[in-house]
Design goal:
The structure is a single chain. This protein is of the alpha+beta class. The protein is built from five helices and six strands; from the N terminus they run αββββαααββα. It is 26% helix and 27% strand. The strands form two sheets. It has a four-stranded antiparallel sheet with strand order 4-1-6-5, sandwiched between helices. The protein has a two-stranded antiparallel ribbon with strand order 2-3. Strand 2 and strand 3 form a beta hairpin. It is extended. This is Uu.00g006390.m01.CDS01.
């Protein structure tokens, strides 16, 4: 039986080639579309809205999908640029003494994502963990390394924040109903072994002793 050569197997397409300890980066897009809010009725006196009644439609959704068009160098530079931008940004006057680290701020922003997105991001990390830890000789982990907002993915420029106004024609408008982020994952090989002990939900680590004790009785 003949086997295809290394080139035919497409080894050059794998992100890990020679150094298994070098970090691997992946880009994923996460999107949140809020449910549509419709104005049903409102009361206005002298141009001022006193009360409004809204209806929320069941058309919102969240999604997570791979973005494979980024190279490893691009993602590595993106992570470094996000960390540097946070560390060099001028903090607010009241938060200078208690400013969080980049890692802590990143964790806060992940868990502050709207709706079920934190759970979906957790599922993504768990799926990547399971898919890349099938080798009995290496342990690998995945962490979130960057979470930049994609504010200009619908148009060439991001929308400008609207100023507050007391006079509006149709009540309170829905502010930024669509949000999109690029989440960068960093995978690393954290440990190696001559062979990890295999176990599952039904395995018994005392099986050898149980068998020996059972044989000794006969």
């Amino acid at each position: 039986m003949s086997y295809p050569g290394k080139n035919a197997l497409g080894w050059d397409k794998f992100r890990v080639r020679d150094d298994p300890y070098k970090p691997v980066y992946e880009a994923w897009e996460i999107v949140s579309v809020r449910p549509t809010t419709e104005l049903r009725s409102f009361k206005r006196i002298l141009g001022v809205n006193l009360s409004s009644e809204y209806r929320v439609l069941d058309d919102g959704y969240t999604g997570v999908r791979a973005a494979p068009s980024y190279s490893q160098a691009e993602l590595e530079n993106m992570v470094a640029a996000n960390q540097q931008a946070y560390e060099t940004a001028t903090p607010e006057l009241l938060s200078i003494a208690k400013r969080s680290s980049y890692a802590q701020d990143l964790a806060n922003r992940v868990f502050d994502l709207p709706g079920p997105l934190p759970s979906k991001v957790g599922q993504l990390l768990d799926h990547r963990l399971v898919a890349t830890n099938k080798c009995p000789y290496a342990g690998r982990e995945w962490k979130i390394a960057a979470l930049p907002a994609m504010e200009d993915w619908m148009t060439d420029e991001a929308p400008r924040a609207k100023g507050w106004s007391l006079f509006k024609r149709s009540g309170v408008s829905q502010e930024y109903p669509v949000h999109k982020w690029l989440i960068v994952l960093r995978g690393q090989e954290t440990k190696t072994s001559q062979g990890f002990e295999a176990f599952d939900m039904h395995s018994n680590p005392w099986l050898k002793m149980d068998v020996m004790d059972n044989d000794a009785q006969y």
